[in-house]
Amino acid sequence: MSFLVEDNSARRRFEILVDDALAGFAAYVPRGDVLVFTHTEVDPRFRDMGVGSALVRAALDQVRDRGDRIVSECPFMTAFIERHPEYADLVTAA
């Protein structure tokens, strides 16, 4: 199973493809150099396979590479960051 995560800026979301099929997305609202993540969704066919975590990890890595910051209004992303404190430095106040 191969994962590919890309920023679909036209739709304002990071999308994860699993074996070339859209498996989920993390939606955001851009505010300058801050992305406000509002919702993460994984297609039911891909749940319990680590797809959501792979999506969030790759999205946060891309945000870090660009030098941006985030606000998480998404419970899934917030829980991921709490479990992976190496991403806490990306979080800024709303």
Description of the molecule:
With 94 residues, this protein is α+β, with helices and mostly antiparallel strands. It has two helices and five strands. The chain has helices spanning 51-66, 75-83, and strands at 3-8, 13-18, 21-31, 34-42, 69-72. It has a five-stranded mixed β-sheet with strand order 1-2-3-4-5. A hairpin with a 2-residue loop joins strand 3 and strand 4 (34-42). The longest helix is centred in the middle third of the chain and has 16 residues, at 51-66. The protein starts with a strand and ends in an 11-residue tail after the last helix.
Keywords:
5 strands; 94 residues; alpha+beta; 5-stranded mixed beta sheet
Strand content: 35-45%
**Helix/sheet category:** alpha+beta
Mean pLDDT: 96
List the total number of helices.
2
Largest sheet: 5 strands, mixed
Main β-sheet, spatial strand arrangement: 1-2-3-4-5
Point out poorly predicted stretches.
Answer: none
How far is the first residue's CA from the last residue's CA? 36 Å
Q: What is the general shape?
A: globular
Task: Give the tally of β-strands.
Answer: 5
Please give the share of residues in helix: 25-40%
Give me the strand/helix succession: EEEEHEH
Determine Rg (CA atoms, Å). Answer: 12 Å
In summary, what is this structure?
27% of the residues lie in helices and 38% in strands. With 94 residues, it is α+β, with helices and mostly antiparallel strands.
